Amino acid sequence: MSAPEVTRSRTTVGIVGGGPAGLMLSHLLDRSGIESVVLDLRTRDQIENTHRAGILEAGSVDLLVDSGVGDRVHRDGHRHEGIELRFDGHGHRVDFEALVGESVWLYPQTDVFIDLADARERDGGTVHFGITDPTVEGVTTAAPTVSFTDAEGQRHEVTCDYVVGADGSRSMCRHLVPDDVAVHHFREYPFAWFGIMAEAPMSAPELIYAHSAHGFALISQRTETLQRMYFQCDPYEDPSAWSDERIWERLALCTEGDGFTLHQGPITEKVVLRFRSFVAEPMRHGNLFLAGDAAHTVPPTGAKGLNLALMDVKVLHEVLERAIRSGETSALDEYSPRALERVWKAQHFSYWMSTMLHTMSGEYSAFDTRRQVGELTTLVGSEAGRRYLAEGYTGWPAPRGGA
Ligand code: DHB
Asked: Ligand 1 mean position to 318 CA, how many Å?
């Protein structure tokens, strides 16, 4: 049988990865009159049905609203003006609005994806989901190519000016940066999250981050009737070893005190989420740019992952627009340092929230647990401490470009 014919085409920006980062970049470029082609190994259905975090920083919501995809976040999202930190059996509210004049929005990543995928479809964007055999070549030349087989079996070769790797934590594009150029920073943690989705009423109007001798727990929400919660577990925990009853018992132990009641209901999903901190530097090599999880992973405490990915593409869109529309190619040099400044702030924030709130087992655990309560008591008892948390949680302003 002869090989199927290859369809050859040209675009300005080839985007590998059609999650929120890739689609947001394609959407922003389109609004600047710049063509792109997006491809993803996963089907749209697979992406839509993988539950991820649910908190958007103020700046992420601004990006959705300012670029014309913010209708649903304002209609169906929930604005949260603070969080509760819970330890030693007492809750302490951190009032973001009062401290820094900002809020966050509870709006799941899957919905951000749906809004962007719908917008790309409505605006006639070229997005190929469910592709196979992607290859990227020539990223240090003036005409890199992205090749793949589409869901119908047709092979494509797209010649681009720039390639963006927004292809997630198992990124293929990341490996196109040679070993003698790339620096990979990596940290693992001795704990993980057991995540559940439960058909139950809300237990609290805002998120509760709880530190307890039984471990960390996070009470989050999705809708009036569907709740998202997490509790600390071993990284190698088997989700099927946990009955609904055992899960509710653990969550109640981690959050007890002050008359708090956890509203229970049937559990519809059980997953274990491993913790990793990872950064690949630099985020640019020749005409290849890495964005989102392809370049960095944060532990989930504080929900920075999606927000960082959106801020990467905000900066990337700006420098690409300057390079492509104004011929200012030196703008491209700004991408990696500007994106990395925020990446490392978020790395620290996520590391800090994680290590402050999770309990350790072993020799020093009693010391550490008491010390953590000391840290949390200091934090909530000081306006400067609460403001530090509020600034990081709601998101720092984007690093400024130019000289
Ligand atoms: C959620 C996840 C997080 O990691 C977090 O810090 C807050 C909320 C969530 O899934 O709702």
From this structure: 28
